[in-house]
Amino acid sequence: MARKKRKRPPGEKRLLEVFRRAGRPLLLSEVLGLLQVPPDQASWVQEGLDRLLARGDLVLTKGKRYGLTDEMNLVAGILSVHPDGFAFLTPEGGGRDIYLKTADLKDAWHGDRVVARLEHARGKRREGRVIRILERATVELIGLLCQAAETYYVEPEDEHLLFNLIIPPGKLAGAEPGEVVRARVTHYPTAHLNPQGEVMEVLGPVEDAEVQTLIVVGKYGLPDQFPPEVLAEAEGISPGITP
User: Fold this and answer.
1) What pLDDT shows up at residue 97?
2) Which CATH number characterizes residue 30's domain?
3) What span, in angstroms and rounded, lies between the C-alpha atoms of 24 and 229?
4) How many C-beta neighbours within 10 Å does residue 236 have?
């Protein structure tokens, strides 16, 4: 008996075409049926769907159905949070920014890549709400270590980051309240839990001039070291003055 030829995994372009032809969200089993892929080879399709989800081309509904974002009134883009709490989403596919109220951010932070649902338009302004966070922008931050009762937390120096990062007592790295620290996010917020992190480096007292410089460097993502090739070239320069 001849061995059954194994089908190659469908490309992302072909997967998107399946959804466009269907004109509605699909279950994984429906996608497999339309592609004529047997269940024992579903991993290939699943990997393609996961890539499309990560890119924001598809979204997974509560009913475990996959749908095209651009056909479900959804938009993927980068979030810009204002210090007053509201935000704007810049669509990846172009077009006008989308306004989001504080209550519609769904624990998303400044700079995050998200999928938002368009709710309505007021005049020329489109409004929406975040339904999924695709990619987190903030991994580390600089802020002031504070204490309230038995709880330690870092208050970010970046005014666009509107949260306090809880630091467990065992993750303080010797830092004291009132000092500026560099902290790493270990747990992002959920519906029931605040974000948590750990202190990576103690920068020093907030009033210190050098610490203030480090705050500016960290806040705007400025380089704080010369590239290796620049350092190598500098080492080859004679310290003397050539007449």
Assistant:
1) 94
2) 1.10.10.10
3) 54
4) 6
Please tell me whether residue 180 adopts helix, strand or coil conformation: strand
Cα angle 222-225-228, degrees, rounded to a multiple of 5: 130
Residues 164 and 178 in one domain: yes
User: Among 115-129, 137-151, 176-190, 211-225, which is the least confidently predicted range?
Assistant: 211-225
Task: Please tell me the predicted confidence (pLDDT) of residue 1.
Answer: 38
CB 75 within 8 A of CB 116: yes
∠ at Cα 152 (148, 156), nearest 5°? 100
Q: Which pLDDT tens digit goes with each residue over 54-100?
A: 888 898 887 889 999 888 888 899 999 999 999 999 998 788 899 99
pTM: 0.74
Find the mean pLDDT for residues 12-41. 90
Instruction: Quote the CA–CA distance of 37 and 33 in Å, as a whole number.
Output: 6
Quick one: 152 and 201 in the same domain? yes
**Residue 58 forms part of a structural domain:** yes
Q: What does the alpha-carbon distance between residue 97 and residue 128 come to, in Å, rounded to a whole number?
A: 10
Tell me: do 171 and 215 sit in the same domain. Answer: yes
Domain co-membership, 80 together with 131: yes
Residue 122 has a pLDDT of 74
CATH number at residue 167: 2.40.50.700
* CA distances to 222, 237, 239 from 242, in Å: 33, 11, 9
Element (H, E) at 33: helix 28-35
Residues 54 and 123 in one domain: no
DSSP code at position 166: E
Boundaries of domain holding 91: 73-135
